[in-house]
Structure formats: C-alpha cells, structure tokens
Design brief:
The chain has 131 residues and is of the alpha/beta class. The protein has one domain: D-Maltodextrin-Binding Protein, domain 2, CATH 3.40.190. The protein is built from 5 helices and 5 strands; from the N terminus they run ααβαβαβαββ. It has a 5-stranded mixed sheet with strand order 2-1-3-5-4, with helices on both faces. The protein is globular, with a radius of gyration of 16 Å.
C-alpha cells in the first residue's frame, strides 16, 4: 500500500517535471557547445581534484575553491560573464553550487545539469540562458 509520504513525493516529482518541461530549453547544437570554458573543483575532496585533473589534461582551465566561491566570483567569473557567457562545469558541494547558481542567474546563466553523487558532491554544468 502506498503511504502518504510516497504519494506526496510522487505528486511533487510530477509537478516539478511538468514545470521544467514547460520552459522548453533547447538542446545545444553540437558537442562543442557542451565543452566547458572552465572547471571548478574543491581542494578539500580528492574526487574533485581527480575530476579537475581530467579536464586540465585536455587543456581546459581549472579553478580550485575551498567551499567559498567569493574569490572566484570577484577575480574571474564576474568579468568573464560580463564579456561573454562562458560555460562552466564543476564538482563541488551543494552549498557551493547554490552560490554559483544564484550568481549565474544574475549574469543570465543557469544550471544546465546537476547530478548528486554517492559521496555527497554534486557534478554540474552552468551555461547561458537561452531566450
């Protein structure tokens, strides 16, 4: 028998899917559109460092944080996103992603992918908001 909790979870998931599908965001036209300009990682987590190293070997700029995105915002992202809407990828905590998501919205960007991993970190990408 379905419990009240399960029923509410199913209902909330249905509402969330309905609202997301109504945005109608187009998919990127090519694989090049998916390539991040920068990768953000957290020095505190070995899996995040390995993640960043894999992108660094491909010639993509990587930027490390220790939970706080303030310096990254003031030194790099603010200026990058004023000039152009450069996509990002990262492996950070949910709190760091939350801050980046708010900053991205103000710059006309949005989180395009978000995957919570078993170790508690979140792999994500941020790209331009398509109107």
């Amino acid at each position: 028998m379905t419990t009240r909790r399960e029923l509410l979870q199913i209902a909330c998931a249905g509402v969330a899917l309905q609202s997301v599908s109504s945005f109608g965001w187009p998919q990127p036209a090519s694989a090049a559109a998916l390539a991040p300009d920068r990768v953000i990682f957290d020095h505190r987590f070995p899996s995040s460092i390995v993640f960043a190293d894999s992108f660094k070997r491909r010639g993509i700029a990587v930027h490390g944080i220790r939970g706080d995105v303030t310096a990254l915002w003031y030194d790099t992202l603010y200026f990058d996103w004023r000039e152009r809407k450069a996509p990002l990828a990262g492996l950070t905590t949910t709190e760091s992603l939350f801050c980046l998501e708010i900053l991205a919205r103000d710059a006309g960007m949005r989180v395009t992918e978000r995957h919570v991993r078993a170790d508690g970190l979140v792999s994500w990408s941020i790209g331009p908001r398509v109107v």
